[in-house]
Amino acid sequence: MLQSKKSSLAGRTKAAIFLVTLGSEVSSEIFKHLREDEIEQLTFEIARLDKVTPEDKDKVLMEFQELMMAQEFISNGGIDYAREVLERALGTQKAIDIVNRLTSSLQVRPFDFIRRTDPSHLLNFIQGEHPQTIALILAYLDPQKSAQILSALKHEIQADVAKRIATMDRTSPDVLREVERVLERKLSTLASEDYTSAGGIDSIVEVLNNVDRGTEKIIIEALEEDDPELAEEIKKRMFVFEDIVLLDDRSIQRVLREVDTNDLAKALKGVDAEVQEKIFRNMSKRASSLLREDMDFMGPLRLRDVEESQQKIVNIIRKLEESGDIIVARGGDEELVV
């Protein structure tokens, strides 16, 4: 029988108890995200469990909840913020224990010290920096905050910064330390010496999806002149087919008038039910019934063909947006004037 004291439970044993408590269905989903050696180790630990007392189960679940709560606070506001909140909730010593347990294996993201800084203050702080430095900082910040700052930068450097984010791959710890030292006036110690990934196409797309339409247009047009291939790649990822659920019914109906039925049937193959139902609801019963029949009749399709049809529809959506026929909400909670 397992002893009740939490200190007597090893990490793998706690993990095994946690998985047993969650049940086989949830545990099997968790296993999908683990390496083979981790699955083997946990399977062995689960097999070794004889009897799990309710007390042990409760302690493991409580510890998991506390760690997840601490990790959320760290993600939202940094280590100091997490410690401050946890101290108020759990007491000083327990807060320190939890944070230390997390940070011993947690890699703190660079520029953690400015993540809670107001964007307007941060803008004043960095706008005189070199575009590469600005790009590096924005790549590590929350996309919405990066979008606010990018929108407020001078127009002549917006596209340059956007391009630098898009073409950024990996940055060495030495460079990150130097930039942090200049910004914070002292060296920040990274939790790991491994090179960290930031930037890239997905990063700038996420930022541009949060800026206002005017800023996006200025940046894309400048990139089209400077680097047409990069601009095209960014535009392809700006609005993915699944985002069609974000359109209002009137916009979807307008889009459907321009879409080839065969392309629509292919595009809907493989997407989740929410996307399909959004489309079906904006068609007549007869049209939706015929579309369902076409999809069934097609049978299995190559992923490349599905994605090609989805991209055709995405291109139609972008053209309709540019012409003002439909509105795609941008920049978070965007207000519309009727």
What is the helix fraction of residues, given as a range? 55-70%
Main beta-sheet strand count, sense and barrel state: 2 strands, antiparallel
Task: Output the structural class.
Answer: mainly alpha
Model regions low in confidence, pLDDT < 50 over at least 5 residues: 1-7, 186-195, 331-338
| N-to-C series of helices and strands | HHHHHHHHHHEHEHHHHHHHH
The strand count comes to 2
Determine the N-to-C terminus distance: 68 Å
Report mean pLDDT, rounded to a whole number. 75
Q: Which oligomerization state do the chains in this entry correspond to?
A: single chain
Q: Which sequence of strands runs across the widest sheet?
A: 1-2
Beta-strand level of the residues, as a percent range? under 5%
- DSSP helix count? 19
Q: Which shape, going by the Cα principal axes?
A: flat
**Rg value:** 25 Å
